[in-house]
Design goal:
With about 350 residues, the chain is α+β, with helices and mostly antiparallel strands. About 65% of the residues lie in helices and about 10% in strands. A hairpin with a 3-residue loop joins β6 (about 330-335) and β7. About 25% of the residues are buried.
């Protein structure tokens, strides 16, 4: 519970409450009843200050819970206006309810010390409203400053991770196993079909040329990535034959959208690595657009009985690099039948961010 509220608020508000409540109570009491303080400081402490402190604590606790609720419900920066608007409405309603419940109760408990006049009533009402806006203002200000600091640190960390991820991605994708398997396939092709062997070498050359060309690119046109994927899957089909089925359905108007380089290749490689591919259990890889702004890579799930432990570096590589360009997360959905990865499409104007 303790860590949960820290996550929601962005900071630990324990000392803020311990110090803030007495200070605000004193300020309100002095501001509203300065003359009583001067004339009768005992009455001021027993009546005005004590009642003010109880008011502050009660409203602080209630409003803090309201703040936590709306912070959980609307956590994103773009939801700030909606959150503050709805939060304010709820706080005003709770304020009037509090006046009807808390004020009569305080009158019963502190009748000997409470001054029964209009000024007192107005003073307490103003005090409650001040507490309302002070608590909300304090939490919003500190929360905003904390999130800003966190965002700055995350961006710096993401920049560092982006560079590391790109290097790691390139290193992982120039996979010696893939090269070995491709050369092994070529060995069988050469004596059987010289023309096809030449075509195979051309595709293999195109795959590695692409990997070298995009080493400095953070984003790539979907059309370029698909052209590379066609060359890459040609090599895979020569190796697995009819046991591997690939279906790519991308409308032309999405070809100028952008994705992370090598993301499709990483996902295809992971599927090949972790799934059975045989005539009895062919592997189907699908690539298609969903809801107009998501690129889906899906394969039927038929895990190998014995497979090396996955480091998940490839998928994490994609997630890290996407976080650098978009608030939308890479989604991974695993069912009994399928393994699905959903990549957010990045519109063309985002190019300016990469320069």
């Amino acid at each position: 519970m303790n860590s949960n509220y820290k996550e929601v608020l962005g900071f630990d508000d324990k000392w803020l409450g311990i110090i803030g409540a007495p200070v605000i109570a004193l300020l309100i009491a002095v501001m509203m009843f300065a003359d009583i303080l001067v004339n009768d400081w005992i009455l001021f402490c027993q009546g005005c200050l004590l009642v003010s402190f109880i008011n502050v604590v009660i409203y602080w606790v209630i409003f803090r819970q309201v703040f936590l609720f709306f912070r959980k419900k609307y956590p994103k920066t773009k939801q700030t206006i909606r959150r503050i608007f709805l939060q304010s409405i709820v706080l005003v309603i709770l304020y009037f309810i509090g006046q009807e419940v808390i004020d009569p109760l305080l009158h019963q408990l502190f009748t000997p010390y409470i001054i029964e006049d209009a000024r007192h009533e107005i003073g307490m009402a103003i005090a409650a409203l001040l507490v309302t806006f002070l608590v909300v203002g304090i939490y919003e200000t500190i929360g905003f400053y904390t999130r800003l600091q966190k965002s700055t640190l995350e961006k710096q960390e993401l920049k560092r991770m982006n560079i590391q991820s790109q290097l790691e991605g390139l290193k992982n994708q120039v996979n010696p196993h893939f090269l070995f398997n491709s050369l092994n396939t070529l060995t069988y092709l050469i004596p059987e079909n010289a023309e096809k062997s030449v075509h195979f070498v051309q595709k293999l050359s195109k795959v590695y040329r692409y990997i070298l060309e995009i080493r400095d690119k953070k984003l790539i046109l979907l059309e370029e990535e698909l052209n590379f994927l066609n060359a890459y899957t040609f090599l895979l089909k020569e190796r697995f034959g009819k046991n591997l089925h690939i279906k790519i359905d991308i409308p032309k108007h999405h070809l100028n959208d952008k994705i992370i380089p090598l993301s499709l290749q990483i996902l295809f490689e992971n599927a090949i690595k972790h799934n059975i591919i045989s005539s009895e259990k062919p592997l189907l890889m699908e690539v298609f657009i969903q809801n107009g702004d998501k690129l889906v890579v899906k394969n039927n799930l038929q895990r190998k009985n014995q497979v090396m432990n996955s480091t998940k570096l490839g998928l994490q590589n994609i997630k890290n690099r996407y976080r650098f360009f978009s608030e939308k997360e890479v989604e991974v959905i695993v069912t009994q039948e399928s393994f699905i990865v959903i990549l957010p499409m990045l519109p063309t104007p985002i190019l300016a961010m990469t320069n």
